[in-house]
Description:
Layout: H1 3-40, H2 44-49, H3 51-75, H4 78-122, H5 125-141, H6 146-160
Amino acid sequence: MTELTEYIMRRHQMTLVVVFALLASVVVYFLVAFLVGQMGGVSIESALAYQKLRRMAYGFAFVYSIGLILFRRAMLGSDRLARVVMTRGVRGLVDHLSTMTILLAVLGEVVAIVGLVMSLLSRMMEDMMRLGGVGALLILYNFPRRSKWFDLVEAYQTATGVTE
């Protein structure tokens, strides 16, 4: 294995650990919401009292999710990656892929946190299931695939002639 291959493998493994930890935290949010809902019981009054806030949270999650997908397209688009390779080299490309994957996963977790807060306020597991599910899907959407990283590095090495 070359030094660059080892570097890619290390960075990918580190990124994978962070993304799995974020995904595990969403599972913990589900468990907390479930336990709080079971202990306190669902209250019709609390559900009605937070109905407007719940609608706002769902609207926020929708707009935020679309924005996050567009942000991902901008940060991991071919023009952006080509600029990264030209300015920082291939290692910079790997660093950029790692950093953006972690950042996007953290931003995806925000929706799950909103779901947890709404679930704790309204004592309805439904909020956590919907918003937590969207948060988990956003994290999985940004899941780092090692083969894709190797393909990108190879493609940009070939296209630009930059080897390190």
